[in-house]
Amino acid sequence: MIIDAYNTTQNIRGRSDYLTGARPGAAPPPHVPFDPGRILGRMDAAGVDMAMICSLAQRIENDFIIELVRRHPDRFIGFGQVMPQADDALAEIERCAAAGLAGLKLHPSLHGYHVADHGLLDPVFERCAALGLPVLVNALDDPFCAPFAIEEIARSHPGVPTIIAHMGAVWNVPEAIIVAERNPNVYLETSATLLSDVRRAYARLGPAKILLGSEWPGSDFDLERMKIAKAIPDEADRALVEGGNLARLLGLA
């Protein structure tokens, strides 16, 4: 089974040029409900059986993710999202878990906090530990969530599988590999990373700490699978990276 570990979907695009693709100053296009066929068609074309989906972080849409998972439980694995500084953050994590979401995504840079803030993050990780939820931290060359800062929290919560998205790309990849190497609960997700960096992680860590991710629609499933195939030629090892590892973390059959 091929399981992609990180993708984003967005229903309400609002006024953001980044989300709408509109020309600067142009009126935003009218809202059109998201068509799941957009992502499912790309998954099918690349032979991807299941994909993790979460909000893009410019707008948290947990109910939208819950509904997509409800409609396609055999194709989508939902991760909720919260701003840890929000008063209802812990209650929202519990609500998402009760509704069937399987993990939590954090985006410190867009939501304005440092990932090594124990006052904010310890309660979040403790609640995820109690609920059996892994945590994915968006980490893309950003001082708010550098790999060593993620390690500061992850090592305090060894029961929470902690996924460093993008392997800390681009300049923080060496740190991310070090953190995954010395912390049993830390894993690296491969979207937005260079082929050479995936090869470097595989040479250093082996296959058990690496998770295939595309971050669709920023990239596409077939492109990311090709990158993994080139970086990890061993078929058994590649099977772990392309789904076996995430299935184990989530308790999937």
Question: Describe it for me?
Answer:
This protein has a single domain, classed as TIM Barrel. It has an eight-stranded parallel sheet with strand order 1-2-3-4-5-6-7-8, with helices on both faces. The protein contains eleven helices and eight strands. The model has no long low-confidence stretch (mean pLDDT 95). It has 253 residues and is of the alpha/beta class.
Q: Which characteristics define this entry?
A:
253 residues; alpha/beta; TIM Barrel; eight-stranded parallel sheet; 12% strand; globular
Q: Considering DSSP H and I runs of 4 or more, what fraction of the residues is helical?
A: 40-55%
Mean pLDDT: 95
Distance N to C terminus: 10 Å
Structural class: alpha/beta
Question: What is the tally of helical segments?
Answer: 11
